[in-house]
């Protein structure tokens, strides 16, 4: 009997949590007001010459000449600890790579590809007889689901990618050129 009561209440609790998150989420008008009040340096950072990701801090930093231009809260693969070793392990790679391709028609709000796997990743996977995986990206939310970002960004939910909100992805997209180096630290 107690289990049935919990089972019946679960959808209601989920609805309440989502309704609360939606009520707390900024509206487009709020974003516009905040953008008007923010200094230009925060609206659109100049082009970054380096991207640093610290998995332990859940942060992505846009860097220029060794200085932080802007930082963002990020989420990772559902199994975030450790370096990506094979396809399907839901880990985000660690190491030095290059942002080598921009994909505007992604299934997520824009995506910038990380050059994983590199030679070492491929050789290591080959030794173990597995595929290293690939198509690791920095991206926004799943298309049509940006309204879930306040909830989604609380959990590591990707298959190994680095996810931000759509508004943050737009800023990163503008600030990062193809060929920019990225380092992902544990």
Please supply descriptive tags for the structure shown above:
eight-stranded mixed β-sheet; 186 residues; alpha+beta; 8 strands
Could you walk me through the main structural features you see in this protein, from its secondary elements to its overall organization?
This protein is of the alpha+beta class. It has an eight-stranded mixed β-sheet with strand order 3-2-1-8-4-5-6-7, with helices on one face. The N and C termini lie far apart (46 Å). It has helices at residues 2-24, 28-37, 40-43, 119-128, 149-152, 166-175, and strands at residues 50-54, 59-64, 67-73, 95-103, 111-114, 137-139, 162-163, 180-185. It is globular and about 40 Å long. A hairpin with a 7-residue loop joins strand 4 and strand 5 (111-114).
Number of strands: 8
For the sheet with most strands, the description reads: 8 strands, mixed
Low-confidence stretches: 19-42
Give helix % range. 25-40%
Percentage beta strand = 15-25%
Mean pLDDT: 82
SSE topology string: HHHEEEEEHEHEHE
Provide the structure class: alpha+beta
User: C-alpha Rg, in Å?
Assistant: 18 Å
DSSP helical segment count: 6
């Amino acid at each position: 009997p107690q289990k049935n009561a919990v089972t019946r209440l679960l959808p209601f609790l989920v609805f309440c949590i989502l309704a609360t998150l939606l009520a707390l989420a900024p509206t487009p008008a709020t974003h516009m007001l905040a953008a008007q009040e923010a200094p230009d340096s925060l609206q659109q950072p100049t082009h970054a010459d380096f991207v640093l990701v610290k998995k332990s801090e859940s942060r992505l930093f846009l860097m220029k000449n060794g200085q932080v231009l802007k930082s963002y809260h990020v989420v990772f693969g559902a199994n975030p600890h450790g370096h990506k070793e094979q396809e399907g392990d839901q880990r985000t790679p660690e190491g030095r790579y290059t942002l080598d391709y921009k994909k505007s028609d992604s299934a997520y709000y824009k995506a910038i590809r990380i050059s994983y796997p590199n030679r070492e990743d491929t050789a290591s996977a080959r030794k173990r007889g597995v595929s290293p995986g690939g198509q690791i990206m920095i991206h926004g939310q799943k298309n049509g689901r940006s309204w879930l970002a306040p909830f989604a960004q609380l959990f590591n939910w990707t298959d190994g990618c680095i996810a931000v909100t759509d508004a943050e992805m737009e800023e990163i997209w503008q600030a990062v050129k193809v060929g920019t180096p990225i380092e992902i630290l544990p």
